[in-house]
Amino acid sequence: MTAQRTITDEIGEIGVWLMGEFGGRVPAAVISRVLNASRRDLEGRIDPEELGEMFHTLCRFRLQRILASDQRITIKIPAPASREW
Q1: What CA dihedral angle connects 75, 25, 36 and 61, to 10 degrees?
Q2: Which of 48, 64, 61 is nearest to 11 (CA)?
């Protein structure tokens, strides 16, 4: 008997992989939302044979973009200017 790998299995494995890769830097809830949104965005639009690769690529891109935007956001409070009167 041969176990057939389904797209659901593949997406599950990709989710585990991405949780491991981004888990320490992005909250699990955010990763989960990215995974769910990416799957919804691709289902029915991509050939099922290509869905796994496209899903991984899209999720990874979105998670990297989230990380990049977090790194760009910095709050700098300027020191009060000394005024000589």
Answers
A1: 80
A2: 48
Q: Where are the alpha helices (DSSP H) in 1-85?
A: 7-22, 28-42, 48-72
For residue 29, the number of C-alpha atoms closer than 13 Å in the C-beta half-sphere is: 0
Q: Where are the domains of the chain?
A: 8-70
Residues in CB range of 11: below 8 A, 6 or more apart: 35, 39, 51, 52, 55
Contact yes or no for 34/64 (Cβ under 8 A): no
| d(C-alpha 34, C-alpha 43), whole Å | 14
**What pLDDT digit, counting tens, does each position of 17-56 carry?**
999 999 999 999 999 999 999 999 998 898 888 899 999 9
Question: Token digits for 23?
Answer: 């888990």
